Amino acid sequence: MPPLLDLLILDERLRKRRTATALALFAAIVMLGSIPGARAEIGNLASGIVLHSIAYSVLTFLLFTGYAGNRTERAIKAVLTVAAMGAVDELVQGMLAYRRGTVLDWTVDCSAALVTSLLLWFFLPQPVAVDNT
Q1: What is the number of other CB atoms lying within 10 angstroms of the CB of residue 45?
Q2: Is 15 part of any domain?
């Protein structure tokens, strides 16, 4: 893996920043999705399934590489976190008069998290611990 990708994906020094980025991205998804008409505008570019799959796969990637632990622990934490994020997103949508939250969208979120975590579990090397001495 090229050194820049090693730094961004595997470097332990950036682990907490990847998790923080995932949380900020999730907040942006919820806020932008709450703007009247915004979903309809972006819906012209891609379907809801595609949008949910991409967004929640990116969140899973950031969380998987941001959490500490072995591969299995990181995968479980990432999937559970994304499942909770998806549920919150759908709950917020359900409270808006011009949106609706659906179980199908939440299922797509969870499926994207599972597939992404499995791929990362199999193909991503273990994070490299950095000696700061």
Answers
A1: 8
A2: yes
In a domain, 131, yes or no: no
Residue 132 belongs to some domain of the structure:
no
* Residue 19 · residue 67 · CB < 8 Å: yes
61: which 2 tokens? 């990637």
**Residue 74, domain member (yes or no):** yes
DSSP the chain: --HHHIIIIIBGGGHHHHHHHHHHHHHHHHHHHTSTTHHHHHTTTS-HHHHHHHHHHHHHHHHHHHS-S-HHHHHHHHHHHHHHHHHHHHHHHHHSTT----HHHHHHHHHHHHHHHHHHHHHSPPPBP----
The neighbouring-strand residues paired with 128 are 11
Distance CA 26, CA 87 (A): 12
| Total domains, the chain | 1
- Please check the confidence at residue 132 and state whether its pLDDT lies above 60: no
> Is the predicted pLDDT of residue 39 greater than 90, yes or no?
no
